[in-house]
Amino acid sequence: MADFNANQGILLMNLGSPDSTSVRDLRKYLHQFLMDKRVMDYPYLVRKILVDGLIVPFRAPKSAAAYQTIWWQEGSPLVVLTRQLREALARLIPQPMAIAMRYGHPSTEGGFEALLAEAPSLEEVILFPLYPHYAMSSYETAVELAREVWKRKKYRFRIRTVAPFFDHPSYIHALSDSIRPFLDQDFDQLLFSYHGLPERHLRKTDPTQAHCLASPDCCQSPSPAHARCYRHQVITTTRLVTEKLGIPKEKTGLSFQSRLGRDPWLEPSTVRRLAELPAEGVKRLLVVSPAFVSDCLETLEEIAEEGKHTFMAAGGNSFQLIPCMNTHPSWIRAIPEILRTQVGEAEIPAH
Asked: Domain-by-domain residue ranges, the chain?
């Protein structure tokens, strides 16, 4: 990132959350989320029938109950933690800074407007998607929405985007620092559980259209596809963190959580591995979810509650979820370094 510019702002972009734990708000949130063509990448009419006719009516009450188990007095953990992240960064970064959620509030437009309210002469906004790894259903959809809002509102400022930082030394250092204190206890395995993706998403984002999932060792074979390959990037993150922490490879595992639908998804499945591990001699388990930088439903409920129950019911003895980096001091220090090195070329308004 260039030296301080008083007319430059930063927009921290995260996934989002329903406004409350009510079924009504969950219906609204799930509709917005699942109707995103980069999440459920089916033709519009098929997506509409599936989302509004089948998924949301049945899933909204269950999701509302799940959110109720993790909701904080201040609101959604993910939104609260993202606000706390911004507040902590404000002590290190002089530029105006706002947050935006891809789904729910505060919206992307609201984030842009908050920056303009603080700096009316804003000349440039740095988009910082808080996703270490590239995926069309997370990083890509957040960036594309920001660009759509920017064009539609005819904002006069330029925008630039922080690239995925899955292998950035400062990110690897911060993630390792957040894990290290938990390694003092006896454990049989550290499981890296990443958010899952349908296999077709990897093929769609493969610029070569011939590399991803074409061979068993595709993620280890050099290719331009790796710049957008979620699987390659999470494998790289896992390897770098494991090496930095000095954990023997046989004491680590990698899996993918949050499956939806019956199409082939990345393997192995976290829920299946949690049920299998005790029979393989893994009785004391640590789990970390590096795809998320802020704790959310997928970590606090899906892993810490449901995942723990699955593992313990299968014969496990101890289960520990390692929190996301959230506002860990090493993560706060890493973000300015990522901003300095991962920002792409500016997009110039065509208005």
From this structure: 8-165+332-341, 169-321
